[in-house]
């Protein structure tokens, strides 16, 4: 079962139970940040936004049956009061829950039905190589991003490419590090290069330490614009099928000599931190 399918199933199981983003992530054996990132990428919804929409849609169906009290429906679906439920219902549907109960119909409501994912749309991703690395200190230019607005990332790379000579780094690949994530979908993206532990940080730049651990290394080949498709397939198909478990530390992209900055084409490595395996290289 893909990660998206697991999240959708868990949401349906939690409609009438108290739950949080951390709870959903624990049940899906993934960090809240990566669960939110993958779900948003695949569906266009944040997980908790989808959960709220499903609860309200389920409530609308119960109201249309006309057999239950509005307050009882509100409490069953984890709303603390009649007023809180009514506000949420009116905000989402534009009508009062009493009106739906009165007409006993949801035909004029835009319900959020359970999502059904087409697993045939995944791009092909080769099996990962397992590599254990020492800690790396990455110096570069960073920005705060969200899943809804990651538009700053291409500009970061343009800024860094123009200033990369200021970083006291040995010749080598560039790294795009995703770090300091939270469950609300916010994260820090650092475009930079590996520098020595005592290397100075130029003005206007930032630093992040990638810890020593084992990584599952996947490859994306083609244009950089298609990288999200590969990342989606990794998190929802390739990584689960590998039997590996994600570890909640920064992941990163590696851009070496196989990637052409001018054309945006070539091979990019996606390094996903995983819990230790005996198969590492």
| Mean pLDDT level | 88
Order of helices and strands: HHHHHHHEEHEEEEHEEE
Largest sheet: 9 strands, antiparallel
Shape: elongated
Question: What class do helices, strands and sheet pairing give?
Answer: alpha+beta
**Strand composition percent:** 15-25%
Q: Roughly what percent helix?
A: 25-40%
Poorly predicted ranges (pLDDT <50, ≥5 residues)? none
Give the end-to-end Cα distance, rounded to a whole number of Å. Answer: 28 Å
What is the number of strand segments?
Answer: 9
Rg for CA atoms: 22 Å
Determine the number of helices (DSSP H or I, runs of at least 4 residues). 9
Q: How would you describe this structure to a colleague?
A:
Helices cover 37% and strands 23% of the residues. The protein has 281 residues and is an alpha+beta fold. Strands 1, 2, 3, 4, 5, 6, 7, 8 and 9 form a nine-stranded antiparallel sheet that branches. A hairpin with a 6-residue loop joins strand 3 and strand 4. It is elongated and about 70 Å long. The chain starts with a helix and ends in a 7-residue tail after the last strand. The model has no long low-confidence stretch (mean pLDDT 88).
Q: How would you briefly describe this protein structure?
A:
The chain is of the alpha+beta class. 37% of the residues lie in helices and 23% in strands.
Q: Notable features of this structure?
A:
281 residues; alpha+beta; nine-stranded antiparallel beta sheet; 9 helices; 37% helix; elongated
Topology, element by element:
Elements: H1 3-13, H2 21-27, H3 32-43, H4 47-65, H5 70-76, H6 82-93, H7 97-103, E1 129-133, E2 136-146, H8 152-163, E3 174-179, E4 186-194, E5 206-210, E6 213-223, H9 227-242, E7 251-255, E8 259-260, E9 265-274
Antiparallel strand pairs: 1-6, 2-4, 2-5, 3-4, 3-7, 6-9, 7-9, 8-9
Helix pairs in contact: 3-9, 4-7, 5-6
């Amino acid at each position: 079962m893909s990660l998206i399918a697991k999240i959708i199933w868990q949401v349906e199981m939690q409609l009438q139970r108290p739950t949080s983003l951390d709870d959903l992530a624990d049940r899906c054996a993934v960090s809240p940040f990566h669960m939110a990132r993958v779900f948003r990428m695949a569906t266009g919804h944040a997980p908790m936004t989808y959960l709220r929409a499903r609860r309200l849609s389920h409530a609308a169906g119960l109201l249309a049956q006309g057999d239950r009290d509005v307050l009882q429906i509100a409490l069953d679906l984890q709303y603390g009061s009649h007023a809180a439920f009514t506000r949420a219902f009116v905000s989402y549907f534009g009508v009062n829950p009493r009106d739906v109960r009165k007409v006993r119909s949801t035909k004029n409501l835009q319900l959020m039905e359970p999502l059904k994912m087409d697993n045939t749309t995944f791009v092909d991703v080769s099996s990962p190589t397992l590599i254990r690395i020492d800690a790396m200190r990455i110096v570069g230019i960073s920005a705060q991003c969200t899943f809804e607005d990651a538009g700053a990332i291409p500009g970061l790379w343009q800024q860094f490419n123009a200033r990369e000579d200021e970083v006291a780094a040995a010749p080598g690949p560039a790294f795009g590090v995703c770090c300091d994530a939270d469950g609300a979908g916010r994260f820090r993206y650092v475009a930079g290069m590996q520098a020595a532990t005592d290397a100075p940080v130029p003005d206007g730049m930032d630093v992040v330490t990638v810890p020593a651990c084992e990584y599952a290394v996947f490859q994306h080949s083609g244009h950089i614009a298609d990288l999200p498709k590969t990342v989606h397939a990794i998190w929802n198909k390739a990584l689960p099928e590998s039997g590996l478990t994600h570890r909640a530390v920064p992941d990163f992209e590696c851009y070496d000599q196989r990637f052409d900055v001018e054309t945006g084409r070539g091979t990019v490595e996606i390094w996903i931190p995983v819990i230790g395996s005996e198969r590492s290289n």
